[in-house]
Amino acid sequence: MKIFTNEQIRSIDRYTIENEGVTSLELVERAATAIACELISRWRPSHRICIFAGPGNNGADALAVGRMLIEQGYNVEIFLFNIFGKLSDECAYNRKRLLEIDNADFTEVVGGNFQPPDLSSDVVVLDGLFGSGLREPLTGGFQSLVSYINGSEAYVVSIDVPSGLFGEWNENVLSRNVVHADLTLAIQFPRLAFFIVDNAEFIGEWKVLDIELSQQEIKSSPYDYFLVEKSDARNMLRPRGLFTSKADFGNALLVAGSYGMMGAAVMGARAALRSGVGKLTVHSPRCGYNILQASVPEALFQADHHDIAITDITLKHDYNAVAIGPGIGTHDVTKKALESFIISHSSGKPLLLDADALNCISQRRHLLDALPPLSIITPHAGEFDRLFGEHNTAEERLKTAIEQSAYYQIIILLKGRYTAVVRPDGKIYFNSSGNPGLATPGSGDVLTGIIASFMAQGYIPAVAATLGAFVHGYAGDIAAERHGRYGVLASDVAECTGRAIRDIMQ
Ligand SMILES: NC(=O)C1=CN([C@@H]2O[C@H](COP(=O)(O)OP(=O)(O)OC[C@H]3O[C@@H](n4cnc5c(N)ncnc54)[C@H](O)[C@@H]3O)[C@@H](O)[C@H]2O)[C@@H](O)CC1
Ligand SMILES: [K+]
């Protein structure tokens, strides 16, 4: 699903109005109908619903929902905040229609002292104060109202975006300036802000409501941000022909493991094999020999000269993919080996670096310059900050990822609830699969194995990373169904990888 900016949404809106014979009022009506249906499916008419409408079209949506709910016999109180004496045409029209209803509980706040209604825990608040037209963080009376709503026990449903939050970047927004929604009903598209963890407390659960903006325009509009869903992953996966052999599915090298961390190599290797690599070699210290041969007999073992750490990374074959990092530790000898490997790596083939490989590099930042273009690094927030400096917010971190990805021409896969695959051209692909069960040791090693496997099979690095993240999350979802979110082991995720790919392709 494409994630558009406010400006792009406005232009798709305009296109729909100009080319599909719809008026702006009709779009408001469509949005309101979808929102009202959602509320009706969740709450009974006797439930107290309190609607706060602002002066723009977010407010117009809210007023129209109010009218629809009253017509369905709901117990609704509506407040319109017309502080500046200026309403959008759509808002003014919906105000008029509301006033035509006898006995509507409607208050227009025009300034001065506003006595807010009692918002106890059995009230549903519909927040239609501001949406995509917000120009600056909320202040004054609106800020007080937002604080009042946030301080109440009411269940809060926000229309489009929580009021006070900008759809994209929110560096100057404070927690007290933004409505804390329990549910956000986004009109037609989710927003970039939904995928940045700093905003999780504002957005709550979210759902997209379709108002049938022009599909043609949506399809042809360029985008910078994308939410990867099952159908996207399906489109990326290539079916396997009947007359194929293992030679068609690539040859991968996984450099992983050290004394006490051989599990990382085992999990990475299992995940790579379960996601279909044709041939896999694991390069590990000698202490890993028995462990790997016994637990992953399908993989070849290439012994390092050293007993407990990796000290020499040399490519004995022309591998289709080389992944380095799971469980390698940060011994000085390993750092040196990594450094000389990266500096002398001359094939130009992208590498995949994860976990301890990133920790090793963080003390030798010049190595980032030496990475072949389109190499993939897969840090979590801590590893990212060790590489690129401390960040106070996830938003800052994402912005740095965009800059650094472009600067080094590498793909940065930033792990999180919505893992972000940041590409050098500035595009970000957010992953939608997965669950908190994946927050378990070894989960990242499994992801590395999957991505390495896809790279070896000939998926271009950006696709291997994006598809790998989706398959990993989806395998985690299957594992959580079996074992529960508390009980998922990374090994379970690796085992479920093959089934995940099968289910995605069905
Ligand atoms: N996406 C779409 O195609 C559609 C969007 N609709 C709704 O329309 C909304 C956008 O409507 P608008 O563009 O009218 O914008 P808003 O309703 O978000 O608000 C615009 C108004 O707020 C004022 N304002 C902005 N920042 C302020 C601040 N910090 N303090 C006080 N006042 C401030 C502006 O002066 C303007 O009057 C969407 O969020 C959505 O709810 C729907 O009506 C239907 C179609
Ligand atoms: K809103």
What keywords describe this structure?
18 strands; UDP-N-acetylmuramoyl-L-alanine:D-glutamate ligase; binds ligand NAX; ADP-dependent NAD(P)H-hydrate dehydratase activity; NADP; 11-stranded mixed beta sheet; 506 residues; alpha/beta; 42% helix; 2 domains; elongated; 7-stranded parallel beta sheet; binds potassium ion
Rg measurement, Å: 26 Å
Helix content: 40-55%
Largest sheet: 11 strands, mixed
Overall geometric form: elongated
Strand order of the largest sheet: 1-9-18-17-16-15-14-13-10-11-12
CATH architecture of the largest domain: 3-Layer(aba) Sandwich
What amount of the residues lies in strands? 15-25%
What count of structural domains? Answer: 2
CATH class category label of the largest domain:
Alpha Beta
Bound molecules: ligand NAX, potassium ion
Q: Termini, distance in Å?
A: 19 Å
What is the averaged pLDDT score?
Answer: 96
> What is the count of β-strands?
18
Query: And the CATH topology of the largest domain?
Result: UDP-N-acetylmuramoyl-L-alanine:D-glutamate ligase
